[in-house]
Amino acid sequence: MSANKIKTGFETLRWRDGRLEMIDQRALPSEVNYLPYTSAAETAAGIRDMVVRGAPAIGCAAAYGIALEALQLRKHSAEEFNAGLEAAFATLAASRPTAVNLFWALERMREHWQSAAAAAPATIAFRLLAAAQAIHKADIAANRRMGEFGAALLADGARVLTHCNAGALATAGHGTALGVIRSAVEAGKSISVFADETRPFLQGARLTAWELMEDDIAVTLIADNAAAFLMSRGEIDAVIVGADRIAANGDVANKIGTYGVAVVAHRHGIPFYVAAPLSTIDAGIASGADIPIEERNASEVTGYGNLRWAPAGVNVRNPVFDVTPAELVTAIITERGVIHAPDASKLRSHLAA
Ligand code: MRU
């Protein structure tokens, strides 16, 4: 086994020339475009419309959204600055409901605002920019730590199934689930990945397959409904996914379809790992039953892009996340270590450590 440092060649978000730029994840893999953002409202729209997606990446974008608004308002009176910033918090908080990293990042930004409240608007604005940049940087560092802890759980030669995209594109960089895979590869292990295509928004087919291929990591794309068959044939050694919110008892909300993967993995005795930063753990929510689950537009199910395949007017449900009970989770990997067989008491100790 030889060490092999991976240099991912794109940035999910970046601060350039006084504005936020985000890679347009709706256009991938056909086009690699960066879109500019100069206000909280624009950033909230970018989150809602899935230009940026993935829990930690949404959190970083929201933090920059606050900084952008503060910079725009920095020459206004303190009253106007405060009112404008309060409205920016509300707009960003309303963009998507499930990923708790969004609310976590807004809370951190509010703390920075409050701790500088007596300063002039321009001073506060530049402090908020520094805070957003620190959140961005800390997310990459957390993913690297998680990668090291998680890589130790994967055997050399492991065939790993993942669902959705919990990669560099879903974070500030490196990724959570894909970060574990990247770190294992960097440590010299031979890892091959099966990527669920992840209906209906196809994050697996469009994003996971693309970013792993960009990094020369072996990936095989499968239809979501092929995963159970491959598990039954002994072709999967481990499952690793990310999370949008983890309740205090270890229940995990993640992309729709994750629960089914976990049930089948359990049936076949395949370890089911969840990699997520501490910012994804919502200690204020007792169990997964209380996690708000986003439902998105029917058009995501009736077709894709301009193509429609379902009959016009058909009834559609489109819940885009589900909840995997803690009992089906072999371990949760955070930047602080590995929680085996997670439950409320282990999560409490982990958070307090
Ligand atoms: O709707 P999305 O694409 O934002 O959903 C993303 C996921 O469900 C990811 O698995 C999760 O956010 C973890 S990302 C590190």
Describe what you observe in this structure.
The chain has 353 residues and is an alpha/beta fold. It folds into two domains: 13-143, translation initiation factor eif-2b, domain 1 (Four Helix Bundle (Hemerythrin (Met), subunit A), Up-down Bundle); 145-352, Rossmann fold (3-Layer(aba) Sandwich). The protein is 40% helix and 17% strand. The strands form four sheets. A seven-stranded mixed β-sheet has the order 6-5-4-7-10-15-16, with helices on both faces. The protein has a four-stranded mixed β-sheet with strand order 11-8-9-14, with helices on one face. Strand 8 (245-247) and strand 9 form a beta hairpin. Helix 2 packs antiparallel against helix 5 (121-151) and helix 4 (100-115) packs across helix 5 (121-151). Bound molecules: 5-S-methyl-1-O-phosphono-5-thio-D-ribulose. 5-S-methyl-1-O-phosphono-5-thio-D-ribulose (MRU) binds at residues 53-56, 99, 164, 166, 170-171, 176, 203, 241-244, 254-255, 320.
Q: Calculate the mean pLDDT score and round it.
A: 97
CATH class of the largest domain: Alpha Beta
Q: Compounds present?
A: 5-S-methyl-1-O-phosphono-5-thio-D-ribulose
Query: Which series of helices and strands comes N to C?
Result: EEEHHHHHEHEHEHEEEHEEHEEEEEH
The largest β sheet comes out as: 7 strands, mixed
Q: Which percent range fits the helix content?
A: 25-40%
Question: How many separate helices?
Answer: 11
- Which shape, going by the Cα principal axes? globular
Radius of gyration, taken over Cα atoms and rounded to an integer in Å:
20 Å
Tell me the strand order in the biggest sheet. Answer: 6-5-4-7-10-15-16
